[in-house]
């Protein structure tokens, strides 16, 4: 007798539908190593928060490839809970969380792991120095960043890029810094300067030719890149790449992420990975990398400025102070 | 040489020549060998120091009263026979004869030395947190501000209290406190501020109550705070020492808190007001600036000597030498001498020789002790 | 000794007068550190290696302010598996701070990140034939956390332990199950002398124009920026910004910190390599 209480599946198995993907064509990197990706940044998207921002990097040519998407929300300044001790300054806490579905490989649990704690700490260091905490005694400013989607390269099991250092986390940190700083500005919290995050990497130049001519030709992450790398061992030409993405397929020898306050020309965060020599041909690799990351952050800063300004103009327009259309083409701030 | 990595040394070689110098009345005297402190202590205490461990019966003699570090064990076996307790009392040789005479026995609760003051018997632990006593001069740090009092960290088991009514309020030394003072309590002391105070009394739970109602006490400025172990500073005659610093640095004050907190600062001389010389006037003037957080101008030379004196105190405590005016002065002079030698002599230790940790500290402390003993020798010769 | 729970650690701030005194002293030229050290001078430390007989390598270090750290390195044979993350999982680092429940995420991350830097050649030495590999557990036990930041203490001890780690010699063929030489005397060092050594991390604080190594807690409190610079044989393998510091820092200062760290690291390496030679 058949079971009538349940809806039974068909007696014979079905095959799940297969959707046609456009993954057949290879991701072609069009940008040169020193070109940054465009950034979509918009503030005040989370109404309950005092300030918020959303940051997204452009979808690559292949829509199924993940891209970096994150939101930041700022709560505060609000009174510190009575249990905490007196603090003459505002206490800024930052928490960075990966959504369980954000990573391309494994699902991430909800429980905060070491990586998240580490990134949260770095984020709060980067932001704390920009906020004028002395203006808000006995208060707390809480920043929450949640990563909705990221490009991988997090050093997780299965990423398997054993040829170089992973820049995924650095990209996340840099994005989180920029996004959170825009959210802090959106919250109307007094700060000395906005912080922009920037990432730069060093890659080995191939055959003395500038990398950009060659990047297009099938350097995919899945390919056996270690062989290619060993072949180039003798060639000491090292090129700088700005805003590297784990999906670009570079073998990154060393990478740096910075939090940079452009108006004050000061760094709030420096994080490097990978070994950087000091001998070489006179130019110090560390200095080159840090300068590169600063250059990237300076460009990102322009986007933050525009995004913050745009929201402000929008607000002014709403209350009728400004009649004409404010600059910017509806939030999609484009940076070249 | 920026870094020195040494093999660990056995504990003995790090121990000082003189582990006990905690008697207030102990004069630095000298013996035939000129080995002053050790002889002084052995002269004072010809008996071997009796060390007890927790649970050990110190005495069953009912004539003793129990003090700190002991408890009274009501002996159940006093009715049966005294042999059991006798056997346990192998160390308390002089009291072993007294058995079950109805009372209990005094049992140690800490490991340390037995101290007998009149009929009071207490065990002093070798290392413990600071236990405040009335009259102690302490250096403390404000931990919490409450509505009428501050909670002060004095390195003790409980935080000390400083009542708003036990500080000098600005604008006259004997002013009554008002509600305005309560509202601006943070303008006197705020979290993190350092102060020097005296233990005025003890609460039931052993927490200390401090006061700063004297011009000697109050907020600390113009200097550097350092922390040594709680037993490192022993109660003495004077806890505020003024040293004449070398290299034109002027006078440097050292405040040795009994709780192991030490403050080394530039000596601040109170400017007498041009008109009146009366002491009350002076105090009024002083009280205006008494809660300021702004340092005076301190010359680099003074800063250097403040650091050096701080190092001397640290070295003396780590080599278990009693810190008092005479010895500190001598050790400081030795430190100065060492620096001269270091720069003139071997270039290898020329840099950073002012830093007195490890072996350098030991040399300096020993040299300072020698200096004291030779000075005593001379003084003794003159007397004779 | 249990961790001290005094104002030194509970986060009570320093008084404004103290901070200003320290800051002015440290920005002078030449700077005056509160304990009269030169800017590059370290507090003396005691170290010994090979202290735990049941490990492949171990070391212990006592810091000037009482911090004490023990590192034990153990190696186990493990089958290569596809599901695990590949060679980057072959070295596992754990930091345990006694008396502290929540370990600082930073500590483990720094050590692991700099140990696994590409091109260090360690992972190649862990391969055991075709199907097996060594799995190295680096267990760092911070018996007494130092009053200042533990990063330097931790990595120096790890360096010593790894330098003294020996693995039994493989006598079997690549395709067989691994069989090892019984004689410990034939053991192979994990980090041979002529190869790239393990990295160390130096803590550097920048105050005004001056740079200080091995900062104390007070010096950290007045610093502009606190950087942990990991160095491995003349190469910088990682820079991280630590909590603390009062504001941003110019890029020139960061570069100078890194440059000076490399120079100081040279001396630290030579001192570390001298440990144990005396016995």
UniProtKB/TrEMBL annotation, chain A:
Pfam families: RNase_PH (PF01138). It is found in: Cytoplasm; Nucleus. Signal peptide: none annotated. InterPro entries: ExoRNase_PH_dom1, PNPase/RNase_PH_dom_sf, Ribosomal_Su5_D2-typ_SF, RNase_PH. It comes from the Eukaryota. The keyword rRNA processing applies. Gene3D superfamilies: GHMP Kinase, N-terminal domain (3.30.230.70). Residues 36-190 form the Exoribonuclease phosphorolytic domain. The keyword Cell cycle does not apply. Transmembrane segments: none annotated. Residues 1-22 are annotated as: Disordered. GO terms for molecular function: RNA binding. Keywords: Cytoplasm, Exosome, Nucleus, RNA-binding, rRNA processing. GO terms for biological process: nuclear mRNA surveillance; poly(A)-dependent snoRNA 3'-end processing; rRNA catabolic process; rRNA processing; U4 snRNA 3'-end processing. GO terms for cellular component: cytoplasmic exosome (RNase complex); nuclear exosome (RNase complex); nucleolus. SUPFAM superfamilies: Ribosomal protein S5 domain 2-like. Belongs to the RNase PH family. This is 3' exoribonuclease family, domain 1-domain-containing protein. It comes from Tuber borchii (White truffle). The lineage of its organism: Eukaryota, Fungi, Dikarya, Ascomycota, Pezizomycotina.
TrEMBL record, chain B:
PANTHER family: EXOSOME COMPLEX COMPONENT RRP4, PNAS-3 RELATED. It is found in: Nucleus. GO terms for molecular function: RNA binding. InterPro entries: Exosome_cplx_N_dom (IPR025721), Exosome_RNA_bind1/RRP40/RRP4 (IPR026699), KH_dom_type_1 (IPR004088), KH_dom_type_1_sf (IPR036612), NA-bd_OB-fold (IPR012340), S1_RRP4 (IPR048565). Belongs to the RRP4 family. Residues 1-10 have a biased composition (Pro residues). Residues 1-45, 73-97 are annotated as: Disordered. Residues 223-268 form the K Homology domain. GO terms for cellular component: cytoplasmic exosome (RNase complex); nuclear exosome (RNase complex). This is Uncharacterized protein. One of its GO terms (biological process) is TRAMP-dependent tRNA surveillance pathway. It comes from Tuber borchii (White truffle). Residues 51-72 form the Exosome complex component N-terminal domain. Its main location: nucleus. Residues 129-200 form the RRP4 S1 domain.
UniProtKB/TrEMBL annotation, chain C:
This is Ribosomal RNA-processing protein 42. Transmembrane segments: none annotated. Belongs to the RNase PH family. Keywords: Cytoplasm, Exosome, Ribonucleoprotein, Ribosomal protein. The lineage of its organism: Eukaryota, Fungi, Dikarya, Ascomycota, Pezizomycotina. GO terms for cellular component: cytoplasmic exosome (RNase complex); nuclear exosome (RNase complex); nucleolus; ribosome. Residues 204-262 form the Exoribonuclease phosphorolytic domain. One of its GO terms (molecular function) is mRNA 3'-UTR AU-rich region binding. The keyword Plastid does not apply. Its main location: cytoplasm. It comes from Tuber borchii (White truffle). It holds the Pfam family RNase_PH_C. GO terms for biological process: exonucleolytic trimming to generate mature 3'-end of 5.8S rRNA from tricistronic rRNA transcript (SSU-rRNA, 5.8S rRNA, LSU-rRNA); nuclear mRNA surveillance; nuclear polyadenylation-dependent rRNA catabolic process; rRNA catabolic process; TRAMP-dependent tRNA surveillance pathway; U1 snRNA 3'-end processing; U4 snRNA 3'-end processing; U5 snRNA 3'-end processing. It is found in: Cytoplasm; Nucleus, Nucleolus.
